[in-house]
TrEMBL record:
Function: Required for the formation of a threonylcarbamoyl group on adenosine at position 37 (t(6)A37) in tRNAs that read codons beginning with adenine. Is involved in the transfer of the threonylcarbamoyl moiety of threonylcarbamoyl-AMP (TC-AMP) to the N6 group of A37, together with TsaE and TsaB. TsaD likely plays a direct catalytic role in this reaction.
Domain of life of the native organism: Bacteria
Residues covered by the Gcp-like domain: 22-306
PANTHER family registered for this protein in UniProt: TRNA N6-ADENOSINE THREONYLCARBAMOYLTRANSFERASE, TRNA N6-ADENOSINE THREONYLCARBAMOYLTRANSFERASE, MITOCHONDRIAL
Cofactor(s) this protein requires: Fe(2+)
Listed GO CC annotations: cytoplasm
Record organism: Caldithrix abyssi DSM 13497
Family to which the UniProt record says this protein belongs: Belongs to the KAE1 / TsaD family.
Residues reported in the UniProt entry to bind substrate: 132-136, 165, 178, 182, 272
Catalytic activity annotation: L-threonylcarbamoyladenylate + adenosine(37) in tRNA = N(6)-L-threonylcarbamoyladenosine(37) in tRNA + AMP + H(+)
UniProt protein name: tRNA N6-adenosine threonylcarbamoyltransferase
Length: 331
């Protein structure tokens, strides 16, 4: 089955064509206009999606060497995300479905991230514990089969990606902050300062990241400009370690508790180099198989949406043309 996927939930306009697990095209346009504001400006995002959606879809079809006649069905993100941004992709795909008479399916963006990992692996096995870490989400999900999700833990305040982005802002770095902190941390000393880790005894699988950002703010207020400059890499390394450590401990504990011998990560923060190497090592020590997504499918892209959509469409499930966008859609 050949699926055309579209993703416009935030600041990436993306279209992809897949044929089963094979990606024929995955075109992503990241909107750089937001960099100067230190975060995504929703109205600017919607307007950029409107401008980009047709050329990006055309480019994806061209790269896949197909026309709409060769596509069997469509998949599009319908939440969670920015409502104006979601509506652009959703309505565009509804138009394609109406014009071609082919089915379309609305996909949850987080489910897309899960299938972004599955896209890179032919042999995924269940049950599997997924750690989903992005700019808006930090969740532990137990999957017992395709399309079956059980949330076993989540953040009570900020997402871990938000902790990276807000931390980077406090440090005077750019946006998005995750890749910048990641890069600087590689040359820093992670024992320079011990930032707090919230372990939450009442639900050992929940997360909390608002305290970490505040701890950084308080710590920076005590430093001189010279100290901040000299120790920037050490601060990044210490902060990153405090952000990543609870993810490792809780993911491994969840796999043990729920008898899963498979562990996987998904979402933008899955591109983090410390998280990737540390979790791989912890899985090896515990004899768990570890599924690491390819970098290209970690951050927002339409191939992951198409791959999740394929699971529904191949089971004959489709969405009605009345489907709405849901900014706070849950998994
Ligand atoms: O999944 P994603 O592209 O968009 C959302 O759905 O949120 O994730 C974006 C998040 C941002 O917070 C960004 O800072 C973070 O992923 N991120 C990283 C890295 N690359 C992206 N965080 C830590 N280390 C990275 N290398
Ligand atoms: Zn995302």
């Amino acid at each position: 089955m050949k699926i055309l996927g579209v993703e416009t939930s935030c600041d990436e306009t993306s279209a992809a064509v897949i044929d089963g697990n094979q990606v024929l095209a995955n075109v992503i346009s990241s909107q750089e206009i937001h960099n100067q504001f230190g975060g995504v400006v929703p109205e600017l995002a919607s307007r950029a999606h409107i401008r980009l959606i047709i050329p990006i879809v055309e480019k994806a079809l061209e790269q896949a060497d197909l026309t709409l006649d060769g596509i069997d069905g469509f998949a599009v993100t319908y939440g969670p995300g920015l409502v104006g941004a979601l509506l652009v992709g959703l309505n565009f795909v509804k138009g394609l479905a109406l014009a071609t008479g082919k089915p379309f399916i609305g996909v949850n963006h987080m489910e897309g991230h899960i299938y972004g990992n599955i896209l890179s692996q032919e042999q995924i096995q269940f049950p599997i514990v997924f750690l989903i870490v992005s700019g808006g989400h930090t969740q532990l999900v137990l999957m017992e089969d395709h399309l079956k999700y059980r949330i076993i833990g989540q953040t009570r305040d900020d997402a871990v990606g938000e902790a990276f982005d807000k931390g980077a802002k406090l440090l005077g770095l750019g946006y998005p902050g995750g890749p910048l902190i990641d890069r600087l941390a590689r040359e820093g000393d992670d024992s320079y300062y011990r930032f707090p880790r919230a372990m939450l005894k009442d639900n050992p699988f929940d997360f909390s990241y608002s305290g970490l950002k505040t701890a950084l703010l308080v710590f920076l207020q005590k430093l001189s400009e010279k100290e901040k400059e000299e120790h920037l890499k050490d601060i990044c390394a210490s902060y990153q370690k405090a952000a990543v450590e609870p993810l490792i401990i809780k993911t491994i504990n969840a796999a043990k508790e729920f008898g899963a011998r498979q562990v996987a990560i998904a979402g933008g923060v899955a591109a983090n180099s410390l998280l990737r190497t540390w979790l791989k090592q912890a899985c090896d020590e515990n004899g768990f198989a570890f599924y690491l997504p390819e970098f290209a499918y970690c951050t927002d892209n339409a191939a992951m949406i198409a791959r999740a959509g394929l699971e529904y469409l191949r089971r004959g499930q489709k969405s009605p043309l009345t489907l709405n966008a849901y900014p706070a859609l849950k998994l």
